[in-house]
């Protein structure tokens, strides 16, 4: 978002300075430095916790980080007692992946709670192992009647608002964990590589916000090590680690994984950077992203990997994860009459149309890292997302979306729902062709929720090209309100197994429901 300028650059500081000692409520990984040492005594440790990702009916990925070279071993069981286990040999963890690793589990039983534990073994002495670290997840059900329930949000550690031990860290993660969803969809901006975290920030009312910070997060991320440190930062929060151990994730990325509003080929006009080539920075970030999240289509170091993918969650749900960052054209006035690159790129758009046509799921959730009809500016004359404020016929990046919406209508694809974050408030938009300049599409809903742990911002304008009608909105009246002033937001999607109805609930920290909407399966125009 162009109106979210990164925090001023503080001086470099030692690891975990700032407010680290301000509260005993926030437990940190028992790791003495960001980069593991090779001469450590004792046994391998996994102080950064475990996480599972891209779980389907029969498979899933398990992630861990070691404090030294180690062999990753995963043991799974249908019970928490681990009486009968299946053992999965994982990779050797070393400096090439920042001592992280992912093990793919296959042939899992559908619709069941899977208990797992990760054991790290000394590569020179397999009998020398660390304490197991446990986690759990549910595989997707192949039975329609079981239903599906998941959460989504995005935007974490942005605008200088980091882990504050005075308020218990990212406590919204505990609210989400208590709902025990089948999975969590993170809609991007998992980190703010361009937003340093200072030890303290004075709020408008004179209160002081304290942050835990690290050496890597005290400046903008440019090197691979700094990007790795930025992705590692959120794992310092006990709430996040506890959440990760219970709820599997589907993760996508957006601009702040690299730099505010970046696009391919961009040369940054940012004096804080010595490396100004966005392509170089994005390659480093994508490598760190693939090391720190279990993403099925993007193993670390794979040059052919990609973020966009579809995750099948049983007969009721397919999740289409988009990448509106990697393949877009340059930000501009966005009013060109012909635009085949757009915001998705031609190849990704063809993939999305093909996979939507193939889907037999009742609901097709399109996980978009940016909204469609909300006008997101990039400076005074350029635009960052799809819309540009011209309410007339589609122009620029709107042409791709018009093509997609036309495809959905003419192929009679039902049950599409758009979920996003990005704009740092929560809202619901119903897109209605009879109120739009472009009318060759069926009505659909778009729901916005976030941020989880970043600054809140006022609502942006709507663009009339696709006829969005905003039926709910909650946003602050000024820019960059802290999480202490504007509560974090997240969304919930609950698909009933008996009726097939999909209910969206927009929630805030504490779990309160702000807005709810129930959609009927197989219908259009709801």
UniProtKB/TrEMBL annotation:
<dbReference type="Pfam" id="PF16655">
    <property type="entry name" value="PhoD_N"/>
</dbReference>
<keyword id="KW-0732">Signal</keyword>
<dbReference type="Pfam" id="PF09423">
    <property type="entry name" value="PhoD"/>
</dbReference>
<dbReference type="InterPro" id="IPR029052">
    <property type="entry name" value="Metallo-depent_PP-like"/>
</dbReference>
<dbReference type="InterPro" id="IPR006311">
    <property type="entry name" value="TAT_signal"/>
</dbReference>
<dbReference type="InterPro" id="IPR032093">
    <property type="entry name" value="PhoD_N"/>
</dbReference>
<protein>
    <submittedName>
        <fullName>Alkaline phosphatase D family protein</fullName>
    </submittedName>
</protein>
<feature type="signal peptide">
    <location>
        <begin position="1"/>
        <end position="34"/>
    </location>
</feature>
<feature type="domain" description="Phospholipase D N-terminal">
    <location>
        <begin position="49"/>
        <end position="139"/>
    </location>
</feature>
<feature type="domain" description="PhoD-like phosphatase metallophosphatase">
    <location>
        <begin position="156"/>
        <end position="506"/>
    </location>
</feature>
<dbReference type="InterPro" id="IPR052900">
    <property type="entry name" value="Phospholipid_Metab_Enz"/>
</dbReference>
<dbReference type="InterPro" id="IPR018946">
    <property type="entry name" value="PhoD-like_MPP"/>
</dbReference>
<dbReference type="InterPro" id="IPR038607">
    <property type="entry name" value="PhoD-like_sf"/>
</dbReference>
